[in-house]
Amino acid sequence: MAYSCHIVPRPVEWHSGIEVTGYWFLDRPSAWLPPADLVRFLDAGPPPVYIGFGSMILADPEATVALVLAAVAQAGCRAVIAAGWGGLTPKALSPNVFALVEAPHDWLFPRMAAVVHHGGAGTTAAALRAGVPSIIIPFLGEQSFWAHTLVQRGVAHEALPQNRLAPSTLSRAITLALNDFSMRQRAVTLGALIREEDGVARAADWIETMGTVR
């Protein structure tokens, strides 16, 4: 099971043949360098909010971009907007918004003030490890589960239904995440715990041990 017990406690009824290893992270290549314009943007002001929906396909990308930009303006924050598969690509940018093609989450998320995302397992894990609050807008599948779980852990407020999203609701959620000191501290604490885990090494050790036993 490639998740952290700090996020979902191991059920007591599970037998010893089920191992919860911690998350399996695929980190950036050692030769990767961030784009210079992204670095300049990050250095030019306070940590921004990341907004991106990964592999989710948007029914109306232009309308979603307009909604996101309006929410960012209402919240008065800086933002990095990631295109993703859905094409979340602003054409007209204010100085407070950076349009991102892609960047590794393990480098980018620790530099964010909060992460607005779809609640996919990988993005959720990356936000948790970075130690920043999440604002989750589930689209499908297990994403609502992860949204509910992060609310229980106190590192996210209630999920925002994707089909009823509005600038005012997203702006309000961003403002709450940026100003909830207790939630931010809980995110920092959970992030430190997750960074202490090595899910990949633990999984490899478990597989080799089980192979030897059998």
What does the model show?
The structure is a single chain. By secondary structure, this protein is an alpha/beta fold. It has a single domain, classed as Glycogen Phosphorylase B (Rossmann fold). Helices cover 42% and strands 8% of the residues. A five-stranded parallel sheet has the order 3-2-1-4-5, sandwiched between helices. The longest helix is centred in the first third of the chain and has 15 residues. The radius of gyration is 18 Å and the shape is globular. The protein starts with 35 loop residues before the first helix and ends with a helix. The mean pLDDT is 92.
Task: Give a short summary of the structure.
With about 210 residues, the protein is α/β, with parallel strands linked by helices.
The CATH class designation is Alpha Beta
**Helix-strand pattern:** HEHEEHEHEHHHH
Task: Let me know the CATH homologous superfamily.
Answer: Glycogen Phosphorylase B
Give the number of DSSP strands.
5
Give the biggest sheet: 5 strands, parallel
Q: Characteristics of this structure?
A:
single chain; 214 residues; alpha/beta; Rossmann fold; 5-stranded parallel β-sheet; globular
Question: What's the helix and strand layout?
Answer:
Blueprint: H1 36-43, E1 49-51, H2 61-75, E2 79-82, E3 97-100, H3 105-108, E4 114-117, H4 121-130, E5 134-136, H5 143-152, H6 167-179, H7 181-195, H8 199-213
Parallel strand pairs: 1-2, 1-4, 2-3, 4-5
